[in-house]
Design a protein that fits this description.
Elements: H1 3-22, E1 24-27, E2 31-37, E3 40-45, E4 48-51, E5 57-59, E6 62-70, E7 73-81, E8 83-85, E9 89-92, E10 96-99, E11 105-116, H2 119-124, H3 129-146, H4 150-155, H5 157-172, E12 177-188, H6 191-272, H7 276-293, H8 305-320, H9 326-334
Helix pairs in contact: 3-5
Domain Band: 22-201
Membrane topology: Single-pass membrane protein
Family: Belongs to the band 7/mec-2 family.
């Protein structure tokens, strides 16, 4: 065999091997590949080993933009891919300038979580899926925040996220993707607004501190007043109790003295019998004379010396009279 024929056969064999290698396509798990035959969509290759016809069948070249972070800054790289990832993907696009309803310009940074559900639509229904999704998200973000004031924007992130998911999901459904959620990462107001907000927050904290201090002082005063009131009530109750006890003691003493006096008079009456009235008059007369004698400012003069001598003599007669009855028996026993 001529040497030239061997060389030709070698080239033919090499070409056949290259064609065979070109016809073998391995698709990773959770990925698909779009195959076009002579420029038209032919089929979708599933994960695993697939055979295609070289030259006639070609994988669809899909432009794709990826986000990378370096030193806290975001930058984008545009590449061409053949395998579409069917897993949930995160698309972090640059922060956008948005104007609120009260004409305050803010910077909003959001992240979109989406998943390709229909690979053919994601390739053929939209030219560049990442760019289209970014543009749609930016437009929707401006519309949603443009209907809200700055204060509502800063405090209603969940409401913003829900509105973005609903609007973007409905618009992107025709592209064969499902928007799972949209998260607003950061909202940055202008510097002057931040300064005003800090001053407002400082004033609010000072106001709360003053209110707390005033409430504490008020509470302390209330407690002090309640303590003084309780102390006065306790003192009054103690004085009242002491007065009642003292009154009860005096009443009992008076009652006992009255009973003793009553017993004494009964004994005297039993002894004196018919002279009991004269005895009482004499006793009261002598007590009156004793009280008047103790008063230095009073000069007492009897009405008649004869009457005084007669009264003293009669009173002496009563005292010298021997008692009868129980007292007589007592005296006899003592003798």
């Amino acid at each position: 065999m001529p040497f030239a024929a061997i060389i030709i056969l070698g080239f033919v064999a090499l070409f056949v091997v290259i064609l065979l290698v070109k016809g073998i396509r391995i698709v990773p798990e959770q990925s698909v590949m779009m195959i076009e035959r002579l420029g038209r969509y032919h089929k979708t290759l599933e994960p695993g080993l697939n055979i295609i016809i070289p030259v006639i069948d070609q994988p669809r070249q899909i432009p794709w933009r990826r986000t990378h972070k370096q030193d806290g800054e975001k930058f984008f790289v545009v590449t061409t891919i053949t395998n579409l990832d069917l897993r949930e993907q995160v698309y972090d696009f640059p922060s956008q300038s948005v104007i609120t309803r009260d004409n305050v310009g803010i910077q909003v940074d959001a992240v979109v979580y989406f998943q390709i559900t229909v690979a053919r639509d994601a390739v053929y229904e939209i030219e560049n899926l990442p760019i289209a999704l970014e543009t749609l998200t930016q437009t929707t973000l401006r519309n949603v925040i443009g209907e809200m004031d700055l204060d509502d924007t800063l405090t209603s992130r969940e409401k913003i996220n829900a509105s973005l998911v609903e609007t973007i999901g409905a618009a992107a459904q025709s592209w064969g993707i499902k928007v799972n959620r949209v998260e607003v990462q950061d909202i940055i107001p202008p510097v002057d607004v931040l300064t005003a907000m800090e001053q407002q927050m400082k004033a609010e904290r000072e106001r709360r501190a003053r209110v707390t201090e005033a409430e504490g002082f008020k509470r302390a005063e209330v407690l002090r007043a309640e303590g003084e009131r309780d102390a006065r009530v306790a003192t009054a109750e103690g004085e009242q109790r002491a007065f009642v006890l003292e009154a009860q003691g005096e009443a009992e003493a008076i009652e006992r003295l009255a009973l003793a006096e009553q017993r004494k008079l009964q004994l005297v009456k039993e002894v004196m019998q018919d002279d009991f009235a004269d005895y009482l008059v004499g006793i009261r007369y002598m007590e009156s004379i004793d009280r008047m004698a103790k008063n230095d400012n009073v000069v007492w003069m009897p009405h008649s010396a004869t009457d005084l001598a007669s009264f003293i003599g009669g009173y002496r007669h009563l005292l010298e009279r021997k008692p009868a009855g129980p007292l007589a028996v007592t005296e006899g026993r003592s003798e």
